[in-house]
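for ur thesis appendix - Type IV pilin. copy paste whatever u need, i formatted it the way the template wanted (i think)
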Amino acid sequence: MTRALSPVLGTVLLLAITVALAGTVGLVVFEDAAAEPSPRTTFSLSADAAADRIVLTHEGGDTLSTTDLTIRVAVDGDPIHHQPPVPFFAASGFHGGPIGPFNPATDPEWSAGEDAGFELASTNAPLLDPGDAVEVTISSEGSVIARLETTAT
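the 3d part is after this line
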């Protein structure tokens, strides 16, 4: 009788493993299919060393809500000390308020044709010098939408 039990247990165990693997594969496939696609948007970037100003222009594509955005800035590969907490006003490391939808007093929807920018304060580092490579990464809800690079003028 002990022999008859072994093949049955082996079959049940093999069936359980197969069902678990199929469930895992199905979950991964359907989770990826259900994920919302990231916004499709085009931007341009300018950096003015004389004013320590960085301006991003929404050139076209999906409208974005600035409340969902994260902006990260690096100068010559070094992240600036105080990153812009968009939307913001009078944040540490920035001079005054930002322009466009980065300013909480304006519409948080960033549409094609709109500029959004900010000016680095002397309390932030590194500041911009002519010829510096400026890189800005724009993310929405943790997904990178764009990486932009320009040279400060």
